[in-house]
Design a protein that fits this description.
heterodimer; A: 167 residues; globular; B: 516 residues; alpha+beta; Immunoglobulin-like; Rossmann fold; 6-stranded mixed beta sheet; 30% helix
Chain lengths: 167, 516
């Protein structure tokens, strides 16, 4: 007796979520010039291919390249708002992508995962946007003439704290 | 999918009172309790009503009760037990683990912040701030502990073999925490094939919200129980997940094979002392004339040959060929070796064999013989020869639902010698044996031979599982054919039943060969 086989990869909907987020990252990178945008676009394409084939590594690599594209744009004098949105876009694309791959592996392409995926991507985007706005407000209102190294040390401290909190 | 059949009448009733819950893709609905408070509470014990009209108010109460009584989901089930809605499910096992989803993300934050510091770029620093936000999001929450109520509805509990059964699973979040990412995988009984729709779904559930998914399975002969779900609940960021094995209210499909017979099964001369349909060489009462003999005192008047008496005034008695009842035991070969299949599709040899055994059994019962059942299986299978409707029903039950006759190969070892000895003790001296086996190996031939040398007339009914498309398969086919020929040589009757042939044809072909 043959039943339906489970296709162990994400459904079509996952591509849409990651694609939209990736496109946002590309659009934001475009404000800093062609190079960054091209890198972000390349990253998004790799990421989408990774989602399609349920390949975690490709999704990770694609997400990293997309973020690097945004970083390049940041270095080419892109406005801070664009950099922030671009970063959030890249992270959401990657986050939705890996989530879709895990859903695809656990449930298969036939299962209905739209609601779970949308919620995951939306919560991810909200978290990113909130911190982005928070950072932006600090950037605009805060003591702007602090040396960058101070900020750097603060950020590293915050990162370590957050990671250590959950260990 | 889910609202096609049984939904009709309920939708009609609930239509005017409240809005139908949205069904995004027609097959799966995430129903919010708040949207359907206005609907009537429908009393229904048949389990066919859809979630959209399923006594929502009472379910809501049950859900609240379950939520308040958060200590033990099993206790909550007492309150929800009477309702037709989902029943709180007990957790059999729970495992929590990290998904490694955000591992390595901190590196990205360091990278961004480091680059920002080196190149004096404030936007990159800002990007790192976003990264820190995500890290906090990922690392500060734990996977939720879902409290679920599950209802499983079957469109048909006693299907015929080959029917499709639609299974609808309703999962309700009866806990107080929202489940951001809930993945549910149905534990479909192994032997059933899912033919339509995945038996799995993922969604997000608020407290009190439900999700419904449905799929169809192809019914096969046997009794199957649906009694569990595998549930994976992740936190919103997806960094941690909890995998649960959830016990649900059991639902069962019992699929009995139909009572159908085949053409008359040709039997051997060996019979019981009871009147039946097998013509024997011994003379006595019957319908077919055999001989004349001198009258003996006590012979029935009806058997006196009055013509002879009229001619020469001597009393002679007519002898007829006695027709007797046969005792037949249908013996199934259910060793793991017999589970062979020609190609990837279609029933395997044991399924065909059990099918054939059922028909032979019924047709022998129809012709007035006493029939029993036995099997070489991991467990003891024995139905003593008998007759009558009760016997027929018992055999139907056994052939359909006995776990030893499951469509899956046995786990345990089959001790052929032991079972052979036990079978030989059980068989009446005059019992015939119909041995149903694909003849996969020499052991099966040994079984047939040893029953034969013990004085039982053996007929081997062998579903042919072989193919001829590769040299290896051709070799296997030749080996089997040699085995059958060897048996024929030692006076065992063999019916070789080809895959695309009807059983009646195979029997008829064999009968012609035997009588010719």
């Amino acid at each position: 007796m043959s039943g339906t086989e489970i296709t162990r990869r994400p459904g079509r909907h996952s591509l849409v979520v990651s694609g939209v987020a990736g496109a946002t990252a590309v659009a934001m990178a475009l404000t800093g010039g062609g190079t960054g945008a091209a890198a972000a676009a390349l990253g998004t394409v790799v990421l989408l291919a990774g989602v399609r084939r349920a390949n975690h590594r490709a999704v990770d690599a694609g997400g990293l390249v997309a973020f690097l594209g945004v970083a390049v744009a940041a270095l080419s004098e892109a406005p801070p708002v664009a950099v922030l949105f671009g970063t959030v876009g890249a992270v959401v694309a990657w986050d939705a992508g890996t989530n879709a791959v895990s859903l695809g592996r656990q449930l298969g392409a036939e299962a209905d995962t739209v609601r779970a995926e949308n919620l995951h991507a939306m919560v991810g985007a909200v978290v990113g946007l909130l911190t982005a706005v928070f950072g932006l407000v600090l950037f605009e209102v805060g003591p702007t003439r602090q040396p960058v190294t101070t900020l750097f040390v603060l950020l590293i401290a915050a990162t370590l704290l957050v990671v250590a909190l959950n260990r | 999918m889910s609202e096609d059949g049984p939904d009709g009448p309920n939708s009609d009733r609930s239509g005017p009172q409240g809005p139908e819950p949205e069904r995004p893709d027609g097959g799966r609905a995430v129903v919010d309790e708040a949207e359907e408070v206005g609907e009537p509470s429908v009393e229904s014990g048949d389990g066919t009503e859809p979630p959209s009209a399923g006594g929502s108010e009472r379910d809501g109460e049950a859900a609240e009760a379950a939520g308040a009584d958060e200590a033990d989901p099993a206790e909550a089930s007492a309150g929800a037990g009477e309702a037709t809605g989902p029943v709180a499910a007990a957790v059999r096992s729970s495992r929590i683990r990290s998904t490694n989803h955000w591992v390595g993300f901190a590196t990205l934050v360091f990278l961004s912040a480091g680059l920002g510091a080196l190149l004096r770029s404030r936007p990159l620093m800002l990007a790192a701030v976003v990264g820190v936000g995500y890290l906090a999001y990922a690392n500060t929450t734990e996977a939720p502990e879902p409290e679920l109520a599950v209802e499983r509805r079957l469109s048909e509990e006693e299907p015929e073999p080959g029917d499709t059964v639609e299974v609808t699973v309703v999962v309700e979040n009866v806990g107080e925490a929202a489940l951001a990412d809930l993945r549910v995988v149905e534990q479909v009984p192994e032997a059933l094939a899912v033919t339509e729709g995945p038996a799995r779904a993922a969604t997000a559930l608020r407290p009190g919200a439900r999700m419904t998914f449905s799929y169809t399975v192809l019914a096969r002969r046997g009794a199957y129980r649906f009694e569990g779900l595998t549930v994976i609940a992740r936190n919103a960021s997806g960094s941690r997940e909890r995998e649960l094995d959830v016990a649900t209210e059991p639902a069962a499909i019992t699929c009995l094979a139909p009572i159908d017979a085949t053409a008359t099964v040709p039997l051997r001369g060996l019979t019981s002392p009871y009147t039946g349909r097998v013509s024997t060489d011994s003379s006595g009462e019957g319908t077919e004339f055999a001989s004349l003999r001198e009258y003996q005192h006590g012979d029935a008047l009806s058997r006196i040959d009055w013509n002879t008496y009229a001619r020469d005034r001597t009393l002679t008695t007519m002898e007829f060929r006695e027709e007797r009842m046969a005792t037949v035991v249908v013996v199934l070969d259910l060793r793991a070796e017999a589970y062979l299949q020609a190609g990837d599709d279609g029933p395997h040899a044991v399924d065909r064999g059990i099918d054939a055994a059922r028909r032979v059994f019924n047709s022998l019962l129809d012709t007035g013989d006493r029939v029993g059942l036995a099997a070489f299986a991991a467990d003891t299978v024995w139905l003593a020869p008998g007759a009558g409707p009760t016997h027929r029903a018992r055999a139907r039950e056994l052939l359909s639902t006995d776990p030893a006759l499951s469509p899956l190969p046995p786990d345990g070892r089959v001790y052929v010698r032991l079972q052979l000895r036990r079978l030989a003790q059980r068989l009446d001296d005059d019992a015939q044996v119909v041995f149903v086996s694909p003849m996969p190996d020499d052991t099966s031939a040994v079984i047939a031979r040893s029953l034969h040398v013990r004085g039982h007339a053996v007929t081997v009914l062998s579903p042919d599982p072989t193919m001829g498309d590769t040299p290896g398969r051709r070799l296997a086919a030749i080996e089997r054919s040699n085995r059958l020929n060897g048996l024929r040589g030692s006076d065992v009757r063999v019916v070789d039943w080809d895959g695309d042939e009807r059983l009646a044809e195979a029997l008829e072909r064999a009968r012609r060969r035997w009588s010719g």
